[in-house]
Amino acid sequence: MTTTGEAETGALTGPWWWTRWRSAVLDIGLALLSAVECVIEGARFARDAALPLPVGMVFGLFAGLVLVLRRKWPIAVVLVSIAIAPAQMGFLMGVVGLYTLAASELPRRIIGSLAGMSFVGMLIVTYVRAHQGVVRGDLTIGDWFVPFLSITTALGMTTPPVLLGLYVGARRRLMESLRERADSLERELMLLAERAEERAEWARNEERTRIAREMHDVVAHRVSLMVVHAAALQAVARKDPEKAVKNAALVGDMGRQALTELREMLGVLRTGDGTVSRVRAVPLVAVGVAAAAAASRAVEDPSDGPCLADLDVLVGQSAAAGMAVDLSVEGDARSYAREVEQTAYRVVQEALTNVHKHAAGAKTRVRLAHRSAEIAMQVENGPPPEPGSAESARLPSGGNGLVGMKERVSALGGVFVSGPTDAGGFRVSAVIPAGAEAA
To answer: Which keywords fit this entry according to its UniProt record (predicted)?
Structure first.
């Protein structure tokens, strides 16, 4: 079926080949007008050709009704109008047929060929009729005016409908192209919205994991030391009051340090208006702004978070809690990226926390090695001197410490290994590239 670009064939709502009922009513109305015209002109042709009047009228009726097929077969309509042109019939059919043909999706060479045929046919018919009128004396004009009249009439009957049809067809194709482009953009926007929602959900999950890991690092170590000191304080409170006072002071210091780190973390989670951001309710833009603000604060303020220079204090706190711990440093100490130093510190901190939880009183060795392209750390403890000593301290464990350490190290492109030793202890090892940056 030949379409005129008026609507897609997949959206048919009218009868037969029409896309809409309005189009069907218009074509049927034009076909009736063409049939009336052709009946009148057919009666005149039958009288001039000495034919029975009903024959000319019936012929004109069927010829005029062909216009109802203009949307489905515009070529057939134009050919019929050219065929009946010698009988001076189908002028309305020719004009409407040429317009429909030019507005259709047919190749331009076909449209040009049929338009040329219609022009030549109209030119010949007009010339013959005008010349016959001059010969009979019906027209009192000069012979020079006959060609001018023929050319003008032929141009007037063919050029305007063809040009109008070409313009309407081009406009329809442009509108369809714009509509398709708008639909494509809408689909792309929907895909982008879905991907943005996926990225937002991924960012929320990553933020939850990061906050959980930071809370675990901050709370677990400090609180574990507080529990150990509290147990020691309970044991020596009556026997050695001076030692009890010292342990109580250490417990207070640990608690204040834990509160300070928690306040710093909550400060990062606060928004610009002073309210705490809720992870589930925060939109994608707010997540990006909060993450950028937190990252900028971490880079601009070097005092945020622990570093390798604080390892001596960390080991000293564990030693004050009764752990036999030894720190050894290999290589020339130097500064690293902030993420590298914080990750190395957290790995050692979590390893010492696990010793307090699972092997209280075990001898522990902390090794830190500065290499040319990486930094390595290892925390190894022997078996606890007294079986069940960890259970006596009543230190709960969630099992997330090793997972958090591995996530931190892997995020920087490092390697993390942990597992029991042959002597019955436990070893935690990590290697981080010196120039690593957080993803």
So the answer is: ATP-binding, Coiled coil, Kinase, Membrane, Nucleotide-binding, Phosphoprotein, Transferase, Transmembrane, Transmembrane helix, Two-component regulatory system
